[in-house]
Amino acid sequence: MFNIEESGFCSDHVHGVEKLYEEALEASFRVDPEASFLEIGNWKGGSAITIMQAIRDSYPERWMFTVDPYGLKPFRLKDEIQVEAKYDEIVYRDAMYNLDNFSRHYGLNHYHWRMMSEDYFKIADKVKFWYHGEPMDLKIGFAYIDGDHNHEVVEMETEWILKHGVKGMTIVYDDTPYVFEKVHKYTSIAQEKGYINNWRTYWTDIDPEEVCGMS
């Protein structure tokens, strides 16, 4: 069993890390091997490394993408700015050091997009991301949502992920009570059908076409 506290790379987000690892591992065995894994909001990189360890233990060729603007961007908790949230350049350098060292040490594929999720969504389909001599077809098999804890942002992120998701994918929401206080179309489904553990909701075995086709 992977233990991030023993890995020596970082120690944030250790609560419930076993469940996060297990779900990422099961998803990696289950979904299309060409589907990438995605994390939105990664602070010092602890949860991303947990997911990358699952990739390492299942299908090391799989890509892991992380998205986080850093730069002391205001961080919202529900409808309020979380002023004590620290995402400055020191945190950014620590995160990239952790993620780069982990991926290099184990020969894993990782790329970080330093931008807001909504900006990433605008360009993700337009950028040719080359791998093995060909542009990748952007497909998502596992997504961990831990960016702005605002229901409107989370719903937007969910819609984009579902449009790019493969059958059998998993979406994980962090800090669930903040995300689901105002229930909307997609987040309500995740809350009803998902498994909740340590403030994380695990919404899995999704058929994106079926969900996106709902009224």
Question: How would you explain this protein's 3D organization?
Answer:
With 215 residues, the protein is of the alpha/beta class. It has one domain: Vaccinia Virus protein VP39 (Rossmann fold), CATH 3.40.50.150. The protein has helices at 4-7, 17-30, 46-56, 89-106, 117-124, 151-164, 176-179, 185-193, 208-212, and strands spanning 36-40, 63-67, 76-77, 80-81, 109-113, 130-131, 134-135, 140-145, 165-173, 195-197, 200-206. Strands 5-2-1-8-9-11-10 form a 7-stranded mixed sheet, sandwiched between helices. The chain has a two-stranded antiparallel sheet with strand order 3-4. A two-stranded antiparallel ribbon has the order 6-7. Helix 2 packs across helix 3 (46-56). The longest helix has 18 residues, at 89-106. It is globular. The termini are far apart.
- Domain count: the total is 1
Sheet with most strands: strand arrangement: 5-2-1-8-9-11-10
The coarse overall form would be: globular
> What portion of residues belong to β-strands?
15-25%
Which labels suit this protein?
215 residues, 7-stranded mixed β-sheet, two-stranded antiparallel sheet, 9 helices, 40% helix
List the helices and strands and how they pair.
Layout (H helix, E strand, L loop, with lengths): L3 H4 L9 H14 L5 E5 L5 H11 L6 E5 L8 E2 L2 E2 L7 H18 L2 E5 L3 H8 L5 E2 L2 E2 L4 E6 L5 H14 E9 L2 H4 L5 H9 L1 E3 L2 E7 L1 H5 L3
Parallel strand pairs: 1-2, 1-8, 2-5, 8-9
Antiparallel strand pairs: 3-4, 6-7, 9-11, 10-11
